[in-house]
Amino acid sequence: MSTVLTWVSATLLTAAALLIVVRIVRGPTVLDRVVALDVLIAVIVSALALEAVVNRHGTTLPILITLSLLGFLSSVTVARYVERDSSEVAEDDDVEEGRG
Amino acid sequence: MTAVLDSASLLCLTASALLSLAAAVGLLRFPDLLSRMHAGTKPQVLGVLLALLGVGLRLRSGLDVGMLLLVGLFQCLTLPVAAHMVGRAVYRTDLVRSCDLAVDDLSVERTGEDGRAVDGDQLGPDDHVSEDVHRSDG
User: Fold this and answer.
1) What distances in angstroms separate CA B130 from CA B101, B109, B111, one per listed residue?
2) Could you give the residue ranges of the DSSP H alpha helices within B30-126?
3) What is the pLDDT of residues B101-136, one digit of tens each?
4) Please, which residues have CB within 8 angstroms of residue B60's CB and are 6 or more apart in sequence?
């Protein structure tokens, strides 16, 4: 029973990670990729938890703490830069319209 | 008793894996960026908390449970910040189709009196005045 559940969970997590990687590769905008990468971090946390449960050790728990603390920094940074780029483009458009 | 706890922990992990797969399918299938964010938050909160509950049920020692509580706390603290920033960037880069929205409360705040984008960080006491001017013009 436990072996079956372990294999089912591992298969589901692998399929989820592969589908998310497909979205990261195909994503039309940078923000699509950022959202998909955040979900991929959650999947990795679940996979590390599954490994800790199967082997019954707490060695990987500090990795989980680090991921949950720092995982959001990348998306915040990228979102900030994307926003700034778009506002600069809008200001340039305004300037061109004013000259025309 | 131990066997019951171990089975419960594996069931929690299986539920977390199911949520992850559902989110991945949603990320691939949904057409809009905001709906993709909506699908992605399921494993980020409930899936991770279920996985941590599974580890706690299996390990059952004080130090490990404390670290798992820290992980859950940090996850619940940092995720809304990231989602807020990404959602704001999505709106400001005009990736939201306005026909999908029933109510757009940000459109008044976003364009000031001269039609330029108002930065949310620079909101001051004068905003009430400019908002009144904008409304009287409309």
Assistant:
1) 25, 10, 11
2) 33-42, 48-59, 62-92, 106-110
3) 777 777 766 555 544 555 544 444 444 444 444 444
4) B5
SS3 state of residue B111? strand
What chain A residue is nearest to B41 in terms of C-alpha separation?
A: A39
Chain A environment of B88 (Cβ under 8 Å): 79, 83
What is the nearest CA distance from A58 to chain B, expressed in angstroms?
A: 6
Please report which helix (H) or strand (E) contains residue B137, including its range: helix B127-137
- Confidence (pLDDT) at B26: 93
Q: Give the pLDDT of residue B132.
A: 45
> Which residues of chain A have a pLDDT value below 70?
85-100
Write down the pTM of the prediction: 0.79
DSSP state of B122: G
The yes/no answer to whether this complex scores an ipTM above 0.85 is: no
B95 and A29 within 8 Å at the Cβ level: the answer is: yes
- A-interface mutation test, from B4, B9, B11, B13, most A Cβ less than 10 A away: B13
Between chain A and chain B, the number of residue pairs with CB atoms below 8 A apart is 183
Q: Which residue has the tokens 């305004």?
A: A94
pLDDT in tens, B53-92: 999 999 988 899 999 999 999 999 999 999 999 988 888 8
Instruction: Indicate which of A37, A83, A87, A94 best probes the interface with B, i.e. most B CBs within 10 Å of its own CB.
Output: A83
**Cβ pair B45, B72 in contact under 8 A:** no
Give the number of residues written for chain A.
Answer: 100
